[in-house]
């Protein structure tokens, strides 16, 4: 059943023809899984290559109204904690759209394309992000890119994509290039949200169906839905906006200090000067009150989001923000915010409360499953 209030992906008919189970997500009808199920899709991506349709994400192109790169850099550095110095064209970086309290309104992927910038924003925040960026950057022309977005992820991704454009094999993690795929120019980054090597491919709408079908026809490639994308990113320890990060969480507490370049921190050549800087630099200086950490359990009790985390005395000292039973590891894994004082004990005895059960959980270094990016 379709909901008239939900937006449809450009490839909606193709997903339905493949037997996808569709469900609402961030205002869109999304393929959650295909007939073989989430676990099969998850493990296939780890072993071969999964093709994800992430066209619900917003794609923005940003250019200076006066045509000057200096204007582009100056306004974006005031709006986001970026530093264009020593950032070559053709490279992508992870950044954050912050509020004045240092909270994360959204997390972004930003490509320096030389005379312009491309940004991918989360689906649920796309309209708010556009409005906020336009407000903060009056000298920039910011508009949507009307294109599909496909993510080819897994150890066979390079071989598959290089079969269409040999330059794909030369790209490394977070590098960007415009590849020719089935005759269509496709701005592509070597990145993704699974912890596996792979590519995110922006495809002109006129070529979206043919590119999708041609990629699926390659040996080792199968369609993968939103369910496996979530379990893969959780195994990789990647936070999800709206679950693990949001307007009430700062980057340091969320384990994302790398998103604030050293030049924008205290003592740096461009220290501060971005929204929320004062609060975030204070957290850098004094340490966070709580921290996002990985937890695992060897008990067969799935622990989901919002489960309280308890200390040895039964006091609530944290909360799970994402949780699943890892298809790769076969045991529960979680992301959770835990009081920093509790974490000061190198091996705190913690439990999660799941209805009447309190399975033991252990702080575990992230990622749960090693990332396999090509660097």
Tell me which CATH architecture of the domain at 7-55 and 146-235 applies here.
2-Layer Sandwich
Question: What is the CATH superfamily of the domain at 7-55 and 146-235?
Answer: Probable tRNA modification gtpase trme, domain 1
Overall form: globular
Overall average pLDDT? 97
Radius of gyration: 21 Å
Query: What would CATH call the class of the domain at 7-55 and 146-235?
Result: Alpha Beta
Lateral arrangement of strands in the main beta sheet: 11-12-13-10-4-14
Cα-to-Cα separation, first versus last residue: 44 Å
Number of strands: 20
H/E topology pattern? EHEEHEEHEEEHEEHEEEHEHHEEEEHEE
CATH topology of the domain at 7-55 and 146-235: Gyrase A, domain 2
Give the uncertain stretches in residue-range form. Answer: none
Helix and strand content put the structural class at alpha+beta
Described by strand count, sense and barrel closure, the largest sheet is: 6 strands, mixed
Number of helices: 9
- Provide the helix percentage: 10-25%
Could you give a short description of this structure?
The protein is α+β, with helices and mostly antiparallel strands and 375 residues long. It is built from nine helices and 20 strands. The protein has helices spanning 12-17, 38-47, 69-79, 126-136, 157-162, 205-216, 226-235, 277-286, 340-343; strands spanning 7-8, 21-25, 28-33, 49-53, 58-64, 91-98, 104-112, 117-121, 140-144, 147-153, 176-181, 184-189, 198-204, 221-223, 290-296, 308-310, 316-325, 332-339, 350-352, 360-364.
Features:
single chain; 375 residues; alpha+beta; Gyrase A, domain 2; Elongation Factor Tu (Ef-tu), domain 3; 6-stranded antiparallel beta barrel; 9 helices
């Amino acid at each position: 059943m379709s909901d008239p209030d939900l937006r449809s992906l450009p490839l909606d008919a193709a997903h339905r023809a493949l037997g996808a189970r569709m469900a609402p997500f961030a205002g869109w009808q999304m393929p959650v899984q295909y007939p073989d199920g989430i676990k099969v899709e998850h493990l296939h991506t780890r072993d071969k290559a999964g093709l994800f349709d992430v066209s619900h994400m917003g794609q923005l192109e940003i250019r200076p109204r006066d045509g000057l790169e200096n204007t582009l850099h100056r306004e974006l550095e005031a709006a986001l904690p970026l530093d264009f110095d020593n950032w070559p064209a053709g490279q992508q970086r992870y950044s954050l759209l912050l509020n004045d309290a240092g909270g994360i309104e959204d997390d972004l992927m930003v490509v320096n394309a030389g005379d312009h910038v491309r940004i991918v924003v989360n689906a649920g925040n796309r309209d708010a992000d556009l409005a906020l960026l336009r407000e903060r950057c009056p000298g920039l022309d910011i508009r949507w890119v009307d294109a599909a977005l496909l993510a080819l992820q897994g150890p066979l991704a390079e071989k598959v994509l290089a079969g269409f454009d040999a330059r794909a094999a030369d790209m490394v993690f977070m590098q960007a290039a415009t590849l020719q795929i089935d005759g269509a120019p496709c701005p592509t980054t070597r990145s993704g949200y699974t912890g596996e090597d792979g590519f995110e491919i922006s495809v002109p709408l006129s070529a979206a169906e043919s590119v999708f079908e041609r990629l699926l026809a390659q040996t080792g490639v199968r369609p993968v839905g939103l369910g496996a994308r979530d379990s893969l990113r959780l195994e990789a320890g990647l936070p999800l906006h709206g679950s693990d990060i949001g307007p009430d969480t700062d980057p340091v507490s969320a384990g994302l200090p790398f998103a604030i370049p050293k030049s924008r921190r205290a003592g740096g050549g461009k220290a501060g000067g971005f929204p929320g800087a004062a609060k975030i630099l204070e957290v850098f200086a004094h340490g966070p009150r709580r921290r996002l950490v990985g937890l695992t359990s060897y008990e067969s009790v799935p622990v989901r989001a919002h489960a309280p985390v308890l200390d040895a005395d039964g006091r609530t000292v944290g909360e799970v923000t994402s949780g699943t039973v890892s298809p790769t590891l076969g045991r529960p894994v979680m992301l959770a915010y835990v009081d920093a004082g509790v974490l000061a004990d190198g091996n705190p005895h913690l439990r999660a409360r799941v209805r009447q059960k309190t399975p033991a959980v252990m702080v575990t270094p992230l990622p749960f499953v090693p990332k396999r990016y090509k660097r």
